[in-house]
Amino acid sequence: MSQPEHLVFITGKLARARLEKVAATLPANRFAWSIADSGVKVAALMTEEIIRRRVTLPEGATRVILPGRCRANPEALAAHFGVPVERGPDEIVDLPAHLGLAGRTLDLSRHDLRIFAEIVDASKMTPEAILAKGLDLARRGADVIDLGGLPDTAFPHLEDTVRLMKQEGLRVSVDSFSLDELTRGARAGADFLLSLNEETLGLAFETGAVPVLVPMRPDDPASLDRAIERMERAGLPYMADPILEPIHFGFVDSVARYRDLRARWPEAEMMMGTGNLTELTEADSLGVTALLAGMCSELAIRNVLIVQVSNHTRRTVEEHDAARRVMYAAKADAALPKGYGRALLALHDKRPFVQTPDEIAALAAEVRDPNYRIAVAEDGIHVYNRDIHKVGTDAMAFFPDLNVASDGAHAFYLGNELAKAETAWRLGKRYVQDEPLIWGAAAEAEAEDTTAFKKAGHTKHSGPGGPPPGTRDARIPAEADAEPPETVGAEEARAEATVDATPGPKKTRLVCGKLVAED
What we know:
Elements: E1 5-11, H1 13-23, E2 31-37, H2 48-54, E3 63-66, H3 74-81, E4 85-87, H4 95-98, E5 114-119, H5 127-140, E6 144-148, H6 158-167, E7 171-175, H7 179-187, E8 192-196, E9 210-213, H8 221-234, E10 239-240, H9 251-264, E11 272-273, H10 275-278, H11 285-298, E12 303-307, H12 316-332, H13 357-366, E13 373-377, E14 380-384, E15 389-392, H14 408-427, E16 486-489, H15 490-501, E17 508-511, E18 514-517
Parallel strand pairs: 1-2, 1-3, 3-4, 5-6, 5-12, 6-7, 7-8, 8-9, 9-10, 11-12
Antiparallel strand pairs: 2-16, 13-14, 14-15, 17-18
C-alpha cells in the first residue's frame, strides 16, 4: 500500500485554527499533513520573500499548498523548496474539494457544443462593423458568427462581409429566409446555411456550405425526416433543427420533437436555437441556458444558435460557454451538474457563509489594530476592529459606531464595502472584503495578477500627509508584529486541540455578545 501524500499548508496565525479543523477531516490513508505557520497574522499578506525566509518544510513533504489569496509565485517557491507548490482555494472550507475529495477533479477545459452567435441586424451594418462585432463574439466564446438577414431588407454587402470575416479567420453562417441571400453567402465562402427545408434543399447540392435543415412547419416532423433522408442518401453533411418554440406557443411539444428526432436519427448532427427561450422569457437567462445546455448534453445535440438582443441576455455567449463546459464535465463523470464551479451561479452561492458567527468572534478577539474588518455570516454583517464588534443587517445602521464622520474617504470606503456585504448577505453570496462579488458567467470577472498585491485604492490619500489612523490603508506591515514561525504536524495539532479543550481557568471578554478567550 502506498504511503499517503504529505501536504504542507502554509498559513498565518489567524487562519491556523480553522485550517487545523478542516485538515483534520482529510482521510489519513490519502493525506498526511503539516501546517507551516509563517508567524504573520494574515495569510493574505504573506509575500514570496516572507515565505522563503520564514518557512522550513518538514522532512518528507511532497506538496505545498498556499492560501488562495497569498500573493506569491508558486513556481518560484517550488524551485526554492524542491517540491511542487500550488495555490489553494480562497476559502479554507473549500480545501477538501480542491484536493479532489468531492469525488472528481474540476476540468472545465473541454466541451462538445458549438456556439453559433447570430448578428440579427447584420444587413443594416457596415462590413467593418459586422467584423468588429464578430471578433468580439468570438472572443467571448462563439465558434461561428451567424449573419442574420432581415425580411424585406436588402443585404447588398453580404459577399464583402463574408469574405472579410473569412480573411480574419472566422467561421461564418448565413441565416435568411431568402434563397437568393443564402446562395450569395454560400458562393462567397460561408461555412453554414440556416435554414433549408425540403423545398429549398437543392442549394445544399450546389455548394460546399453545410445546411441546417428545418421542417416546413414546426409541427411537421415528417418534412424534416424527408430532408434528412435525402442528405443521408447523398452522403453529405448537415444539421437538423426541429425548432424550439417559446413557452405557451408549443414549447413542451417542441422539446418532445427533439427527443423523438434523436430516437429516429441516433447519429444525426443536430442544432437547437435557444433564443426563443432566453430572449422571449423574462427570467434570468443563465438558468434557462443551463437547462437547455443540459438538454443538449442528454440528446447529444452539438450545436446551438444563440441570439443576444434583449438587455437581459447581454451575456448569453459567456453563459452558453460556461454551461457547455459544466455539462460536458458532468456527463463525462456520469454525474449531476453539481460541484463544477460557480460559473452557473449568479444570484446565490451554494455555500455562501464560510465562517460561523463564533469563528468571526474568535478572530475579532485577536485583533489589536484599528483597521475595520468586515465579514458576513448567517446572522448578518460583522464589523470589527480592536475596539468594537458590531453585527447587523442594515449597512447604513453601522455608521454611528464607526467614528468616521470627519473622514470622508474612509466613510466612503466603508459605506461601499458594507453595502456590498449587505447585498451578499441578503442574496446568500460569498463576501470578501476589498474583493468584488462573484456573479458567475453573468458578469465579467476582473483579471488579476495573483502574484502581486493590488494597487492602493483612492482612500490611501485621504487627509493631509497620508492616511489617517484607522483607514484600510493604514495597515501594519506584514512582519511588524510577526511571531516566530513554526511547523505543526497532524498529531501535534490534534494534541494542541485536546489541551485547548481541557477545562481550566481562562480569561475571557465579551465580544459581540459572546464570551471569547483572551490572549
